[in-house]
Design brief:
About 40% of the residues lie in helices and about 20% in strands. The chain has about 300 residues and is of the alpha/beta class. Strand 7, helix 8 (about 240-255) and strand 8 form a beta-alpha-beta unit. The N and C termini lie far apart (about 55 Å). Keywords: Hydrolase, Signal. It comes from Wenzhouxiangella sediminis.
C-alpha cells in the first residue's frame, strides 16, 4: 500500500485545508452543479464571478484515473473568433474557484489579459480521496518512494488534456501559462527544465523542493529555441525547509550562467506558503503579459 504523506507534506495539506475553508461556498456550488462525463459541459451559471464556466471529466489512459476539469471563458469569447491565451492551473479543485473570480476582477481593472482558464482537479483532498499530487507533481527523491510521477503526468497533459482543450476551445497554446503551488510549483519548475515547449510560460509558487533539491541541482535543462519564461514567487513567511531548498537551487542556477531560462524571482512580502496564490497570481499577470501572454487584441483589459 502506498504510504501517506510525511510530516511536512501533512503540514502542506493542513494549511491547504485552511485555504479551502475560505472558499467552501464555491465548492458547495460546484458540487450542486452535478457530475459530468467526458465530452459534456455543465455551465456553472450561478457562480457568475467564475463564468462563463464549464466543466467536464476526462479519463486519463496514461494514468488510468479521472480528472475533473473546470473552464472559465473570457466574457467576449462568444462574440469573438480569435484564439485566446490560456492558463492551466494545477490543484484546480482549490486554485480554480479562488483565482477565476480574481482574474475577472483583474480584467475589469486592466490588470490581467482576458484568457481561457483551465483548472485541473483531482476531485478530493488527500490520497485516500484520490488526490495523487504527491506523485504526479514530483521528480524522483530518495524518499518518500511515492515521489517521481512528473513524467507520466506530463504525458497526460501533452497527449490527452492539452489536445482536448486545443480541439474544443479557441485557444492559442503558444500563449499558454501553467501554474502550480508548493508541490505543484515543483512540477512547473521541473517541466520548465525538462519539457520547456510544453507550455509558453511557467509560474512556480513557493516550490517545495525540500525532499529532492539535489535532483534539481544535478538536472541538466533541456534546450528551447528561446529562453523559457519562468517566474518563481516566494512568500517571505514560508517555512524554513522550503526557503532553504529554494535558496540552494537558486544559488546553483545563478552560478551556471545558463541561458535556457528567462528566470524572474519575485518576493511576496508578509505572505505564507499555502495562502499566497492570489498575491502570486496578481504579480504573475503583469509578468505574463510582458512575456507574450497578451490578449487577442494585444492589450490588457476587456472594456
Amino acid at each position: 500500500m502506498r504510504p501517506g504523506p510525511l510530516l511536512s507534506d501533512r503540514w502542506i495539506m493542513n494549511r491547504t485545508v485552511c485555504t479551502v475553508a475560505l472558499i467552501s461556498l464555491a465548492f458547495c456550488c460546484l458540487a450542486l452543479a452535478g457530475p459530468s462525463t467526458d465530452g459534456e459541459s455543465t455551465p456553472l451559471a450561478r457562480l457568475f464571478g467564475m463564468g462563463p464556466a464549464e466543466n467536464f471529466t476526462i479519463r486519463s489512459e496514461t494514468l488510468e484515473r479521472d480528472f475533473h476539469v473546470y473552464i472559465r471563458l473570457p466574457r467576449e469569447y462568444a462574440e469573438s473568433e480569435c484564439d485566446w491565451p490560456v492558463v492551466y492551473m494545477l490543484d484546480g479543485g482549490i486554485l480554480f474557484p479562488m483565482l477565476a473570480p480574481l482574474h475577472l476582477m483583474m480584467e475589469i481593472d486592466d490588470l490581467a489579459p482576458p484568457a481561457v482558464l483551465v483548472g485541473i482537479s483531482y476531485g478530493g483532498l488527500g490520497y485516500a480521496n484520490g488526490n495523487m499530487r504527491s506523485t504526479d507533481y514530483t521528480a524522483p527523491a530518495p524518499e518518500p518512494d511515492y515521489y517521481g510521477g512528473a513524467d507520466a503526468y506530463q504525458r497526460f497533459l501533452s497527449e490527452e488534456l492539452i489536445p482536448k482543450i486545443n480541439r474544443d476551445y479557441r485557444v492559442d497554446h503558444d500563449r499558454s501559462l501553467v501554474l502550480g503551488q508548493s508541490l505543484g510549483g515543483q512540477f512547473t519548475l521541473y517541466t520548465a527544465l525538462t519539457r520547456p515547449d510544453l507550455f509558453g510560460a511557467y509560474l512556480s509558487i513557493n516550490p517545495a523542493l525540500h525532499r529532492n533539491v539535489e535532483f534539481f541541482i544535478e538536472l541538466e535543462p533541456a534546450a528551447r529555441q528561446d529562453p523559457t519564461p519562468l517566474l518563481i514567487t516566494r512568500a517571505s513567511e514560508d517555512r524554513e525547509p522550503f526557503r532553504n531548498a529554494l535558496d540552494q537551487w537558486l544559488e546553483h542556477w545563478r552560478g551556471r550562467e545558463a541561458g535556457s531560462l528567462a528566470l524572474s524571482v519575485q518576493g511576496l512580502e508578509d505572505e505564507h506558503h499555502a495562502s499566497s496564490a492570489p498575491a502570486a497570481y496578481r504579480q504573475a499577470m503583469a509578468w505574463w503579459a510582458a512575456a507574450g501572454g497578451d490578449t487577442c487584441s494585444g492589450s490588457l483589459g476587456s472594456d
